[in-house]
């Protein structure tokens, strides 16, 4: 039985992180809220949400139920026999609704930010869906160091997996920000690694999302003179570099 405990800024944020780690949809797990998030007062008393997520095990059905279920599934994906010279098909399940609902959600957020000209296109590759945002005010959706874009991406993934029949990995991009950010991180990684060697001590980055930490790990994987590792808990988890001994 797969089970993990996850923390997050909000309950929904913790659920999103847990689903991504387990590679399952919300319908495939049971969720127990251990602690609701607390905003605190002037920065004091802030508490993260904590949940326990358990993957629901599929139990075997009695023989009759198995037969009925199998028959039902076959009907869903096969053609119905011809009737009176006409051929009818039972609709198959697709992710089109999930993608459209995700676009609608992003549009609603944009309108709340007074962005009326947002255009969204997408590209799907297996379970991964990339959404591309275009607007004269798209910088507002990116935010400082991509923080707004990253938060919107997490929410968009929750919406996508609410409607999808299988797990979907969502990525949002605007004005080629992701590629430009990757180049910036790779350059920063080399500078920080050189600093660690020069000073002989450890250096640490500011907190960043897991995929950005991964970019730095990969960029420095070729260097044998330093070690890299992560410390802390999300969303304040950060990467550390120190000279290899």
From TrEMBL:
<dbReference type="InterPro" id="IPR034079">
    <property type="entry name" value="R3H_KhpB"/>
</dbReference>
<dbReference type="InterPro" id="IPR001374">
    <property type="entry name" value="R3H_dom"/>
</dbReference>
<feature type="domain" description="R3H">
    <location>
        <begin position="179"/>
        <end position="245"/>
    </location>
</feature>
<comment type="similarity">
    <text>Belongs to the KhpB RNA-binding protein family.</text>
</comment>
<dbReference type="GO" id="GO:0009252">
    <property type="term" value="P:peptidoglycan biosynthetic process"/>
</dbReference>
<protein>
    <recommendedName>
        <fullName>RNA-binding protein KhpB</fullName>
    </recommendedName>
</protein>
<keyword id="KW-0133">Cell shape</keyword>
<keyword id="KW-0694">RNA-binding</keyword>
<dbReference type="Pfam" id="PF01424">
    <property type="entry name" value="R3H"/>
</dbReference>
<dbReference type="InterPro" id="IPR036867">
    <property type="entry name" value="R3H_dom_sf"/>
</dbReference>
<dbReference type="InterPro" id="IPR038247">
    <property type="entry name" value="Jag_N_dom_sf"/>
</dbReference>
<dbReference type="Pfam" id="PF13083">
    <property type="entry name" value="KH_KhpA-B"/>
</dbReference>
<keyword id="KW-0143">Chaperone</keyword>
<dbReference type="GO" id="GO:0071555">
    <property type="term" value="P:cell wall organization"/>
</dbReference>
<comment type="function">
    <text>A probable RNA chaperone. Forms a complex with KhpA which binds to cellular RNA and controls its expression. Plays a role in peptidoglycan (PG) homeostasis and cell length regulation.</text>
</comment>
<comment type="subunit">
    <text>Forms a complex with KhpA.</text>
</comment>
<keyword id="KW-0963">Cytoplasm</keyword>
<dbReference type="InterPro" id="IPR039247">
    <property type="entry name" value="KhpB"/>
</dbReference>
<dbReference type="GO" id="GO:0008360">
    <property type="term" value="P:regulation of cell shape"/>
</dbReference>
<dbReference type="GO" id="GO:0003723">
    <property type="term" value="F:RNA binding"/>
</dbReference>
<dbReference type="Pfam" id="PF14804">
    <property type="entry name" value="Jag_N"/>
</dbReference>
<dbReference type="InterPro" id="IPR032782">
    <property type="entry name" value="KhpB_N"/>
</dbReference>
<keyword id="KW-0961">Cell wall biogenesis/degradation</keyword>
<dbReference type="GO" id="GO:0005737">
    <property type="term" value="C:cytoplasm"/>
</dbReference>
<dbReference type="InterPro" id="IPR015946">
    <property type="entry name" value="KH_dom-like_a/b"/>
</dbReference>
<dbReference type="InterPro" id="IPR038008">
    <property type="entry name" value="Jag_KH"/>
</dbReference>
């Amino acid at each position: 039985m797969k089970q993990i405990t996850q923390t997050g800024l909000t309950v929904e944020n913790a659920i999103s992180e847990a689903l991504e780690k387990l590679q399952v949809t919300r319908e495939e797990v049971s969720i127990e809220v251990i602690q609701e998030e607390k905003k605190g007062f002037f920065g004091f008393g802030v508490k993260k949400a904590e949940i326990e997520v358990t993957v629901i095990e599929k139990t075997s059905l009695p023989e009759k139920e198995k037969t009925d279920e199998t028959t039902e599934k076959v009907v869903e994906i096969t053609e119905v026999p011809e009737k009176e010279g006409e051929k009818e098909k039972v609709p198959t399940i697709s992710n089109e609704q999930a993608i459209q609902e995700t676009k609608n959600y992003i549009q609603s957020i944009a309108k709340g930010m007074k962005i009326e000209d947002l255009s969204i296109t997408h590209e799907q590759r297996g379970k991964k869906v990339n959404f591309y945002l275009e607007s004269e005010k798209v910088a507002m959706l990116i935010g400082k160091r991509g923080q707004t874009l990253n938060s919107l991406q997490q929410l968009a993934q929750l919406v996508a997996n609410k409607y999808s029949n299988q797990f979907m990995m969502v990525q949002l991009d605007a004005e080629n920000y992701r590629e430009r950010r990757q180049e910036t991180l790779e350059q920063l990684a080399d500078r920080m690694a050189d600093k660690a060697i020069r000073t002989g001590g450890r250096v640490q980055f500011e907190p960043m999302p897991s995929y950005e930490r991964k970019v730095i790990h990969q960029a420095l994987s070729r260097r044998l003179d330093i070690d890299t590792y992560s410390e802390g808990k999300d969303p304040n988890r950060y990467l550390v570099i120190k000279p290899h001994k």
